[in-house]
């Protein structure tokens, strides 16, 4: 099930063709699928699940970087579309 | 770029990311190092050109997606056989910018200044190559890497013929050299590291001259305001990058040929050698002006540090080529 979620997120990342924000959202969707994998599998194995916290903290840093890059793009080009005419 | 405090810190962060991902035991450490490398490389790109958003956004999207894919497939698919393991190889090839996933590398490399281009081509390639070597998952699924070697070699050769931008020429040449580097990597020989080191050295020499002369396009190279000493050094560096003996760049190619001749890899070696000659064509075309035009009546004005750089580069290519044969003669047996 989590494989399906991750693969769908990966496919959505490729099928985005207009806004850059959609690509960022699909990146976060991939991160969410992996976060659920990190949270659920140790729960099933009855072991500790601290790795999900480490994972999510690094993903948040990366998402913040992505957002600031979109802001830089919008400041230069005026919108967050990939192709402008 | 190392002028300011934060520039220095981001550079250290990049190297730390590479270091962490190389030396970690689990896929988590690998992914954390790759993310640190990415997070510190983006401000490094922006420092060169403050309003350049396109290359940084493209680089960020591609690399973030590839590192998520790497982490996910490393954690969940490492116990499966051949076909699934190639997903790890695919994600590492995307991070490298090797064939057939080189389009982002073309777009990003064409928009960067020289120092950022150099670090994109050398430092950012260290950790995916080391991970390709360490993962050792190429036993059952060598098809992916062999196709990358052959396609990379051929595309790197033929793709650069119609290019006028020097950065795109060097991207295509790095595609070709990636093919050469992955030949020893597939058979788990340490020779790929020797080739990578020599490639970094040669690329640094070429980019150094182009950075000093501030050349970004092919038509700028035919101008007579550039001194002929610099153009001659550029010619020698380009010939070394193309792999002419007795210059520095011949030696790693010869080692790869020595290693893989007499084995089943002759097929891909044939494609690599043929495409390497084609890369030599566009290097020669880039440095054509010093071969064809008359510079005898034009005074060359270079500063002392530029003259020193030219002499150093010429010495490294010519003497280094001869010395490396002497040093590694035991290795050749």
Automatic annotation (TrEMBL), chain A:
Subcellular location, record wording: Membrane
Gene3D superfamilies noted in UniProt: 1.10.287.3510
Topology relative to the membrane: Multi-pass membrane protein
GO function terms (MF aspect): NADH dehydrogenase (ubiquinone) activity
Main location: membrane
Catalysis: reaction(s): a ubiquinone + NADH + 5 H(+)(in) = a ubiquinol + NAD(+) + 4 H(+)(out)
GO cellular component: membrane
Bilayer-crossing regions: 12-38, 50-74
Classification via InterPro entries: NUOK/Mnh_C1-like
Keyword terms, alphabetized: Membrane, Mitochondrion, NAD, Translocase, Transmembrane, Transmembrane helix
Keyword Zinc among record annotations: no
The keyword Transmembrane appears for this protein: yes
Homology family: Belongs to the complex I subunit 4L family.
Protein name in the entry: NADH-ubiquinone oxidoreductase chain 4L
UniProtKB/TrEMBL annotation, chain B:
Origin superkingdom: Eukaryota
Principal subcellular localisation of the protein: mitochondrion
Molecular function per GO: NADH dehydrogenase (ubiquinone) activity
Membership in a protein family: Belongs to the complex I subunit 2 family.
Annotated protein name in UniProt: NADH-ubiquinone oxidoreductase chain 2
Pfam families xref list: Proton_antipo_M
Membrane topology listed for this record: Multi-pass membrane protein
Lineage: Eukaryota, Metazoa, Ecdysozoa, Arthropoda, Crustacea
Coiled coil: none
Gene behind the chain: ND2
GO biological process: mitochondrial electron transport, NADH to ubiquinone
EC class: translocase
Stored PANTHER family: NADH-UBIQUINONE OXIDOREDUCTASE CHAIN 2
UniProt function note: Core subunit of the mitochondrial membrane respiratory chain NADH dehydrogenase (Complex I) that is believed to belong to the minimal assembly required for catalysis. Complex I functions in the transfer of electrons from NADH to the respiratory chain. The immediate electron acceptor for the enzyme is believed to be ubiquinone. Core subunit of the mitochondrial membrane respiratory chain NADH dehydrogenase (Complex I) which catalyzes electron transfer from NADH through the respiratory chain, using ubiquinone as an electron acceptor. Essential for the catalytic activity and assembly of complex I.
Keyword Transport included in the entry's annotation: yes
Organism name: Armadillidium vulgare (Pillbug)
Reaction equations catalysed: a ubiquinone + NADH + 5 H(+)(in) = a ubiquinol + NAD(+) + 4 H(+)(out)
Regions that span the bilayer: 5-22, 28-47, 59-80, 86-105, 143-162, 193-213, 225-244, 264-284, 308-332
Subcellular location: Mitochondrion inner membrane
Keywords: Electron transport, Membrane, Mitochondrion, Mitochondrion inner membrane, NAD, Respiratory chain, Translocase, Transmembrane, Transmembrane helix, Transport, Ubiquinone
Enzyme Commission no: 7.1.1.2
Residues annotated as domain NADH:quinone oxidoreductase/Mrp antiporter transmembrane: 24-278
């Amino acid at each position: 099930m989590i494989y399906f979620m991750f693969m769908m997120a990966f496919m959505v990342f490729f099928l985005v063709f207009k806004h850059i924000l959609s690509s960022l959202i699909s990146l976060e969707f991939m991160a969410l699928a992996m976060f659920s994998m990190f949270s659920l599998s140790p729960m099933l194995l009855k072991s500790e699940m601290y790795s999900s916290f480490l994972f999510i903290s690094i993903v948040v840093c990366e998402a913040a970087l992505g957002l600031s890059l979109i802001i830089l793009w919008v400041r230069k080009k005026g919108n967050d579309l990939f192709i402008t005419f | 770029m190392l002028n300011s405090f934060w520039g220095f810190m981001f550079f250290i962060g990049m190297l730390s990311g590479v270091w962490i991902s190389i030396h970690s035991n689990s896929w988590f450490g690998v992914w954390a190092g790759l993310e640190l490398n990415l997070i510190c490389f983006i401000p490094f790109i922006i420092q060169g050109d403050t309003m350049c958003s396109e290359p940084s956004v493209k680089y960020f999207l591609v690399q973030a997606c590839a590192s998520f894919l790497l982490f996910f497939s490393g954690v969940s698919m490492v116990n499966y056989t051949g076909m699934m393991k190639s997903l790890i190889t695919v994600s590492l090839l995307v991070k490298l910018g090797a064939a057939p996933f080189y389009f982002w590398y073309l777009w990003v490399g064409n928009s960067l200044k020289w120092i950022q281009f150099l670090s994109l081509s050398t430092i950012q390639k260290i950790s995916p190559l080391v991970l390709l070597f360490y993962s050792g998952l190429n036993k059952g699924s060598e098809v992916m890497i062999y196709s990358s070697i052959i396609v990379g070699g051929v595309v790197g050769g033929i793709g650069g013929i119609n290019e006028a931008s020097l950065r795109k020429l060097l991207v295509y040449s790095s595609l070709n050299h990636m093919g050469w580097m992955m030949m020893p990597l597939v058979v788990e020989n340490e020779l790929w590291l020797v080739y990578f080191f020599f490639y970094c050295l040669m690329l640094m020499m070429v980019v150094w001259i182009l950075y000093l002369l501030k050349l970004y396009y092919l038509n700028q190279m035919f101008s007579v305001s550039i001194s002929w000493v610099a153009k001659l050094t550029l010619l020698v560096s380009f010939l070394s990058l193309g792999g002419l003996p007795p210059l520095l760049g011949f030696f790693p190619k010869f080692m790869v040929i020595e290693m893989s001749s007499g084995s089943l890899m002759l097929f891909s070696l044939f494609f690599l050698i043929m495409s390497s000659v084609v890369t030599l064509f566009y290097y020669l075309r880039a440095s054509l002006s010093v071969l064809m035009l008359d510079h005898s009546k034009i005074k060359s004005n270079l500063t002392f540090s530029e003259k020193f750089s030219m002499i150093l580069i010429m010495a490294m290519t010519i003497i280094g080529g001869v010395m490396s044969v002497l040093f590694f003669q035991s290795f050749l047996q």
